[in-house]
Amino acid sequence: EAQVTQNPRYLITVTGKKLTVTCSQNMNHEYMSWYRQDPGLGLRQIYYSMNVEVTDKGDVPEGYKVSRKEKRNFPLILESPSPNQTSLYFCASRRNEVDGYTFGSGTRLTVV
Amino acid sequence: SQQGEEDPQALSIQEGENATMNCSYKTSINNLQWYRQNSGRGLVHLILIRSNEREKHSGRLRVTLDTSKKSSSLLITASRAADTASYFCATVSSGGSNYKLTFGKGTLLTVNP
């Protein structure tokens, strides 16, 4: 089944403790993105990647890192999480730059 | 930054009725897409309409695009309780190197049985 898999689905962590949210797609898609969704603010792009080793900042990249060492994986790294990064995170992939996205099921992160 | 703005923010209808949601955007686009999100879950891509298209159908969905007015509408016909969800429009800007997909804040549709 074609899908984007994120892990974990839920995560509660403490301020400053590094964490990684994994994302993997099995559709051989070129493009991958990370979004965060917050009430009243909608979905905002954090980082995106157009291919292996090609990544760039989205609208809200501060406090996040990404890497794209393989086509299928696009992990999101929070080096020193803070409470304002409490949010619902989505990874998404698409075949090309103008296609629709396939979204993962989301990761609900709480930083205390 | 938000590109699309959906209207209304919330819509409540009875099963069997049609639901219409509107989206306005600000800059030139390559295409416009509609997504559905059930509460707290991932978004599902519904339909994509290119800037040179005016209308598109997919099952009970009909999307229109008016680039002169920078607006789009999503019509769901013969709605069902299972259509209850948030609906988002998203635009892919033309030009540039990012082709970023920018989302509006969504319309919450409630279909009452």
Task: Describe the fold and architecture.
The complex is a heterodimer of chains A (112) and B (113). With 112 residues, chain A is mostly beta strands. Chain A is built from no helices and eleven strands. In chain A, strands 2, 4, 5, 6, 9, 10 and 11 form a seven-stranded mixed β-sheet that branches. Chain A has a four-stranded antiparallel β-sheet with strand order 1-3-8-7, with no helix packed on it. The mean pLDDT of chain A is 95. Chain B is an all-beta fold. In chain B, strands 2, 4, 5, 9, 10 and 11 form a six-stranded mixed β-sheet that branches. In chain B, a hairpin with a 4-residue loop joins strand 7 (61-66) and strand 8 (71-76). Chain B is globular, with a radius of gyration of 14 Å. The chains are: A mainly beta (112), B mainly beta (113). The A-B interface holds A 4, 33, 35, 40-43, 45, 48, 56, 58-59, 88, 90, 92, 97-106, 108 and B 1-2, 30-31, 33, 35, 40-45, 48, 88, 92, 98-106.
Uncertain parts of chain A:
none
Low-pLDDT ranges of chain B: none
Q: Could you tell me the number of beta strands of chain A?
A: 11
Overall pLDDT confidence of chain A? 95
Instruction: Count the E strands of chain B.
Output: 11
Rounded to the nearest angstrom, the radius of gyration of chain A is 13 Å
Q: Which bin fits the share of residues in helices of chain A? A: under 10%
Which secondary structure elements does this structure contain, and how are they paired or packed?
The complex is a heterodimer of chains A (112) and B (113).
Chain A: E1 4-7, E2 10-13, E3 19-25, E4 31-38, E5 42-51, E6 54-57, E7 65-66, E8 76-78, E9 87-94, E10 102-103, E11 107-111
Parallel strand pairs in A: 2-11
Antiparallel strand pairs in A: 1-3, 3-8, 4-5, 4-9, 5-6, 7-8, 9-10, 9-11
Chain B: E1 5-7, E2 10-14, E3 19-24, E4 29-37, E5 43-50, E6 55-58, E7 61-66, E8 71-76, E9 85-93, E10 101-103, E11 107-112
Parallel strand pairs in B: 2-11
Antiparallel strand pairs in B: 1-3, 3-8, 4-5, 4-9, 6-7, 7-8, 9-10, 9-11
